[in-house]
Amino acid sequence: MKRAEELRENDRIADAEDHVRYALERYEDSWELWSQLGHILSRKQESAEAAEAFMTATTLNPGEFWLWLYLGYAQRDLEDYESAIESTENALRVESGQNELDQANYNLACYYALLGRNKEAMDYLKEALENNDSMKEWAREDSDLNSLRSEPGFEFLVER
After folding, report:
1. How confident is the model at residue 35 (pLDDT cuts 50, 70, 90)?
2. SS in 3 state form for 24-71?
3. Can you tell me whether residue 46 is helix, strand or coil?
4. Strand residue runs (E) in 85-128
5. Radius of gyration from C-alpha coordinates of the chain
6. CA distance 67 to 32
7. Is the dihedral of CA 31, 108, 82, 42 positive or negative?
8. Among 75, 92, 85, residue whose Cα is nearest residue 38
9. pLDDT tens-digit profile of 90-120?
10. pLDDT tier, 1 (very low <50, low <70, confident <90, very high otherwise)
11. Cα separation, 48 vs 119, whole angstroms
12. Can you give the pTM of this predicted structure?
């Protein structure tokens, strides 16, 4: 596991993938390996396969916040915003701290905005930004939130 992570962090993606796939032949019930494979496939921009890997990981360990969040990212990359919302709501059910809660709320704001459901998006964005000023910079530049820029209150939410 550590070796695959080192390889991935050093941009040796193909080697990392080979390493993880070999390990999965022996330990197919390891959610950590499935998660690692999901990260590798995401890095390779193979979003459908990454989503499958993260889905397997969440099946093996449904109580892990970050697995659900990363599954949502992969689904977002596939433009499957409804599934991304569902996965991120699952993350909220198992969140363990304020930072995680803020991250999930911010992502939900993005996914709802991408669907054009601006009221829900603004509600989630407000929740995320009230507790985490550092996300305001993201929100000012995040193209996922473009549909919100003309919404009343958006500028107030993201001001410094």
Report:
1. very high
2. HHHCCCCHHHHHHHHHHHHHCCCHHHHHHHHHHHHHHCCCCHHHHHHH
3. coil
4. none
5. 17
6. 9
7. negative
8. 75
9. 999 997 798 999 999 999 999 999 999 999 9
10. low
11. 29
12. 0.91
- How many H-runs (helices) and E-runs (strands) does the chain carry? 10, 0
Q: What is the number of residues in the chain?
A: 160
Phi, psi of 83, deg, nearest 5: -65, -35
* Mean pLDDT over each residue of the chain, to the nearest integer: 93
In the chain, the N- to C-terminal Cα span, in Å, equals 41
Token pair for 93: 């059910």
Only one residue has tokens 């001001």, namely: 159
Q: What is the pLDDT of residues 39-87, one digit of tens each?
A: 999 999 999 999 999 999 999 999 999 999 999 999 999 999 999 999 9
* Burial grade of 14 (CB within 10 A; 0-12, 13-18, 19 or more): exposed
Tokens of residue 54, six digits: 């993260």
